[in-house]
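call fold(seq) -> C-alpha cells
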Amino acid sequence: MRKKSDAIILSEQILAQGQKKFGTDSHLWVTIALYHKSFTKNNMKLGEALRSIKQNIPSVIERWIVYALTHDMERENSQKGGSSSVGVAFRLRFDQGTKAHDLSKAYLTQAYSLLTRDNLDLERIMLFLDKAIIQERESRKVLEDLMKQYPSSVQLIRAYGALLRDIYRDDDDALAMFNVATSIEEDSAQLEGKGNGEDKQSIRSKDKQSIGGRSQSKMSNGVKSQGSNGTRKRKKKKYSSEQLNIHSVNKENLIPGFLQIVVVCMAVVIAVMIVTFILQNNNFNNCKIAVDQINCCTSIMVMFIDTYIYSKYLTLRYNIIDNPSIEDGVYFVPSLESIKKVLGVAKNQDIFDLFEGEDLSQTLTDNDVINNIANIGLDISKQYWKQDDERSQAYLYYMRANVPITAIEASKRLALQIAHNVKQSSIQSIIISAVLGILSLSIPVIVNIIQFMITVTKLKKGRQQIFLKLVKTSKYEYLLLKKRLDDIDKDSGDTEAQSIQLSGKDNALQVEENINKGIKNKKDKDDEDFDSLDDEDDKDQEEQENKEDQNQTTIGMNELGSGLYSGLIGNTNMNMNMMSEMNKTQQQQMMQLQMMQLQMKIQQQQEQQQQQQQDNENNEKEEDEEEEYDESDEEDSDTKRKKKEKKKKQKEEKNKSTESKGGKEKEENKEQIDKEKDLTNRVLQISSYIPISFYIRIFIGFALIIIMPVVFTVLSIVASLIVIQYNEAIFLSGYRSVILGTCQLCCIIIVQSQVTEILGVFPNFKVDIATNPVWNDISHFTTGKEIRVMLLEKAITFVTSLNQIVLYGSNINDDIVTGDWQIDQLNSPRTIKKGSQTQKIQYEPNEIFVNRDGDELLNHRVYSINGPYNGLEALFALFIQSAKILLETSEKAILDQNAPRPTLSLTAVQDMSSLLIYDLAV
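ret:
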C-alpha cells in the first residue's frame, strides 16, 4: 500500500479532516500513531501523535498502546545510535526549550505591538521585554545543553536555527544551520539507501522547512536593513560550519575585582570566626577552672563553719559523757566518731593544693590562718586529742575566734576575686570578639553594598539608554519587525501544510531533486558571494557604501522581483494544489513589496523637497543678476518699472511663503523636541528597570552569607555572658549554706552558753576584711544573752536575703540590700525558672536528701517531719521558722526571769540542728 500514492494521499486527507473535526479524540490520535508507525515511518509525527494521545484522556488500552509504541521507538533509536533523538528525556527537554522560544517570541511580538502605538505604556513594554529576555535565556540554555548531548539531531538543529532567526535575527547563522540539518538528512538517506521512499518523503518535508527558513531569512535581511539602519550594508563575514552557537560578545565586567573582593571578605570572616572560637574556648576553660576554685572556696567555708559547730558538739558530747542526764529527750547530738570524722575532713589537701599557684595579694596574709584552722580540725579528729589540756583549749579558742571573721571571710574574698578576674578576662574576650565580628561583617557588607549599588546604577543607566533608543525609534521599524515575526509563523504553517500534501505524490522524487539542486546552487552562489566579498578592496567597499543610500530601493525591488520570478519558474512543475499554497507566499511577498514602495515614495518626497530648495536658490540668484542688470540699464521705461515691481512682489511673496514654511518647520521641530523630552523624562522615571525579584535575591544572598557568622558570634558572646554570670550565683549558693551554719552556731551559743567571760580575760579585736553584717569581732564569746540573741537575728535576716538573691537574682540597681557591700555589688542571674532543675529541687516533693551514706536509716533525722516534704524550700522555711521560735523564746527569757529558758530538748533547737546536720547540709 505504501507504493500506491493515491492511497497515501487519501489517507493523509482523511486524517487531516479528522484532526480538524475530532482533534480532542484520543481514538483518532491512536489511529494516526499506528498509521505513522506502519506506513510513513515518520518518528517525528509518531511522537507528536503519542503526545496528543496523552493530552486527551486516553483509556487503559490506549495507554498501553502509547507505552508499547514509545518502547519500540526508543529501542529503534538505541539501535541506530540515538541520532534521531526521540528519547523521553530528550523530548521533555526539547519541548521545554521550544516552549520557552515560543513564549519569548510572543512577548517580543507584544512589545513590538505596544511600541507601534501613539501612547506608549512604558511599564508594560519593559515588562514584556524582560519576560522575552528571560524566556530567550531559558530556551537558549536548554537547546545548547541538548546540542552538546545530541549534536547530530536534525530537529534540534532546526529549532536552534529558528531561535537565531526569530529572536537574534542572525539570519546567516540560521540559514547555515538549516543547511547543516539538510545535509545531515541527505547523508542519512544515502546511507539507508536511495530506494527507500519513506525516508525520502521525510527528507522532502524537512527540505521544505529549510527552504522556508531560508526564504524567511532572506526576506528578514531586507526588512532588518531597512528598519534598523535605513541603509543596506553588506558586512564581510567568514562563517565556519563547525561553529553553530551564538557568537560570544565580550561582556563588560560590571563589578571590577568582584571575585577577589569576595575571596578576601570570606577569608577575613573565616579568620575572625577562628579567632572568636579560640577566645571563647579559652574563656570557657577559664570559667570552668574558676567554677572549680569557687566551689573549693565555698567547701572550705562550709568545712570551717562545720568545724566550729562540731567542736561545740564535741564539748557537748564530753559533757554528756560526764552527765548523761543532759541527753534526756535530745536526739540530734552526733556520736563521738561522727564528730571526729567530720573534723578530720577540714584538712583536705586536694583543695589546699588547688590554690598553690594563685598569687592573689589580698589572700596571702590569710593562708596561714586557713592552714592552721584546718590543722586544728585534723588534730581534734585524732586519738591523742585531749579536750581538757590547756593547749587544746588554746587551739579551740584560736579556731573559734578566727573561723567566723577571718577564715570564712578570707575564703569569701578569694572566691569573689576569682570570679571578678574571670569576669574581667571574659569581658575582654567578649569585647574583642564583638569588635572583630562587627568589623569582619560590616566592612565586607559595606564594600559589597557599595559595589552592588554602583553596579545597579550602572546597569540601570545602561538599560535606560537602551530603552530610550527603543522608544525613540520610528514606529514604522517596529511594524516591519512585527510583520517579520508574523510572516515567519505563517510561512512555517504553510510549509508544514505543503509537506503533508507532497508526501504521497507521484512526482515527489522530481520535486525533491529540483529543490535539492536549487538549494545546492543557491548555497554555492552564497559561498561565491561571500568569497568575492572577502577579496574586495577597501576602496570598492567605500564607493559601494556611498552609492548604497541612493540605490537601496532599487536593489530591494530587484531582489524581490528576482525572488518572485524564480518562485514562479520553480513552481511551474507543481500541480494546482501546490500552486494555491505558493500563491499565499507570493501574496506575502507582494505585501512586502508594497511596504518597500511606501518607503521609496517617502524617500522620493524627500528628494523632491531637496530639489525644490535648490531651484529656489537658483531663482534667487537669477533675480539678483537681473536686478543688477536693470540698474545698469540707462533706460527707465514704465515697462521696466512695472516688471521690476512685479518681481519684487513675487520675491516678497516667496520670502513670506518660505518664512511661513520655515516657521511651521520650526514649530514642528519644537513639538518633536518637546515630545522627545517628555518621553525621556517618562523613561527616566520608570522604576522597573531592575526587577524587585533581583533585589530580593540579592537580599536573600546577603542574608545567607552573613547569617552563619552573625549567629556564631552572637551565640558565643551570649554563652560567655551567661557563664560568667553563673559564677557569682554558684558562690552565693555556697555562701548561703555558710550563713545557715552561722545561724546554727548562734543557736548553740544561746543554748550552751559560756561558763566564763572570755572577753574580760582576752581583749576584743575587729577584723577589717570581714564585711558580713553579723559580726566582725569576737563578740560571740560573750556571756551576754542580748548580744547572742542579736547575732541570731542578724544571721536570720542575712540568710533570708541571700536565699532570695540565689533564687530570683539581683543586680546593683535592685532594692535588696544584705548589708554586705561585697554581696550587694554582685550581679546574680535568676536561677529558678519554669521547668528548671532548681525549681524541681526547691519545690517538688521529696522523701529525703541523702548527703552521707546511712543517713536514711537514722531515726529522728528531722523531728518535726513525717513523710515527704515539698523540696528544699520547705526545709529552709522550717529552719527559719525554728530559728524565729528560738529567738522569741530567748527574748521572753531575757525579759521575764520566770519564763522558760531555751534548752537542747526544745523542738526548734532540734529541728535546726538536725536539718543542718542532714538534709540541709552541703
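DSSP finds 27 helices and no strands in the chain.
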